[in-house]
Amino acid sequence: MSDGQRHRVRLKDAPTEWEVAHGDTILRAALRAGVPFPYECNSGGCGSCRFTPLEGRVEELWPDAPGLSRRDIRKGRKLACQCRPTSDLTIEARLENERPPAPAPRRFQARYLGRDRLTADMAEFHFAPDAAAAFLPGQYAMIAIPGIGERAYSFSGHPAEAGARLSFIIKRTPDGRASNWLFDQLREGDELAMDAPYGLAHLRDTGRDLVLIAGGSGLSPVLSIARAATTDPAFAGRTAHLFYGGRGPADICTPALVRELGGGGAGLLCRNAISDPRQAADWGGPVGMIHELVARELNDLARHDFYFCGPPPMTEAVRRMLMLDHKVPFGQLHYDRFF
User: Fold this and answer.
1) Predicted pLDDT of residue 212
2) How far is C-alpha 9 from the chain's CA centre?
3) Quick one: which of 5, 62, 84, 277 has the most CB atoms within 10 Å?
């Protein structure tokens, strides 16, 4: 379709419909329009945005995305985050009960300002948006990496700084084309296209204490939440418990980061653990999985709200521990599934 062409998407047996502009997916256009389309990862992995096309045509960006099972494919289901309409559409999908959180996502350019090294393979990258930007603590941006494609990176900064600076904690992975490009090719002054904000695991004020759990670059969204909660007077008198896990002592970067936090909001307690017992002699702190440390350190877990992010095995272990072992209500667990 041409650059100016738009197509309409209509929900079967409902008054809901929205326009999809050139270059947008069905999912992102829905969220821009305030339509409560279900999603989490926005990148084809979780399968939350499944729908069935009934009339019209679509272009699939990733036909083999892991978010679709064989059964889904047999039934003709597709992923809204991986489909662009090539005509007007009628679809079948189940929407969420609540509208997406404000602000609505938009596309913009951001100029690279530089990065602060956190560990040997992890840094906090800083960008200046070309126009006012906004996000909620815990949300993420889709960043376009030249020649590679878009990747989801969580904001690490305070939302109050979003108009002038956007920050992301990014970890270099050996086989990660995008992360290696960012570490090796990106130069100060370069501009990248971003689309944000997205994500449902954002900070909420429920009156409960907070537990923030992270591993690796999963520190990024929980650090944003910590930065916001410890400065927001609405959270005064409460505690934010930050638990961070790394493989060895060299991976633990939180002590320097949390020294800057606080002032008018929740109090912060930070606990760290390493998972590799072979490095315990150089550590002197807790050794084991980070969710095990949470269970040892806190009582009555059901009295807390939980925000967690990290490698899929970590997030699954946290989820199972909270729901199965400690009967924490699902509504108090906040995480976006990335694969």
Assistant:
1) 98
2) 26
3) 84
